[in-house]
Amino acid sequence: MATFTVRALAKDTWPAFAELVERDGGIWGGCWCIGFHLDPKGPKAQCKPYRETKERLVCQGHAHAALVFDGETAVGWCQFGPTAELPNIKHRKQYEASLEQLPDWRITCFYVGKGYRKRGVANLALQGALEEMARLGGGVVEAYPEDVDGRKTSSSFLHGGTVAMFERLGFERVRRLGMHHWVVSKVVACEGVNW
Description:
- This protein is of the alpha+beta class.
- About 25% of the residues lie in helices and about 25% in strands.
- It has one domain: Gcn5-related N-acetyltransferase (GNAT) (Aminopeptidase, 3-Layer(aba) Sandwich), CATH 3.40.630.
- The protein has 5 helices and 7 strands; from the N terminus they run βααββαβαβαββ.
- The longest helix has 15 residues, at about 120-135.
């Protein structure tokens, strides 16, 4: 049984992140987990080439993720960031139509490498992301997971996680997006501060 650790995506962990993406064929057709960084009103090719853009954002401190490691090998992640860093979300028009206030943080996607799925990596990545957000000041955190209760769904398409996974960590459903997705939210206290 592997002993996993979690580290923040940063300049020093970029090589491990890049190796995981390249090892698994570029992730979802070569997206490099960049789609949520796109300006929803900008041109479609605004972030190409994806690898170079992602690396630049990481080195500038404008791309966040909790990376799960097996030894020195990255095996999965949970991407998160301030709302301005991740402006492009699924079901954005429906989301904005009933928006009252933007959150401080968004959790946009998960990835678990081949051979490590169904071993708790996504859960560990989510816990790591919440700890990192607490370290960075805390605040209101939103995510957009899928409710899979009562229906069969391939885990390879659950890039936003499941509602149940978030609810286990204290997130509450706020409103539905699309047929099976939900806005879930939680307040994360600043590390060392009791709210």
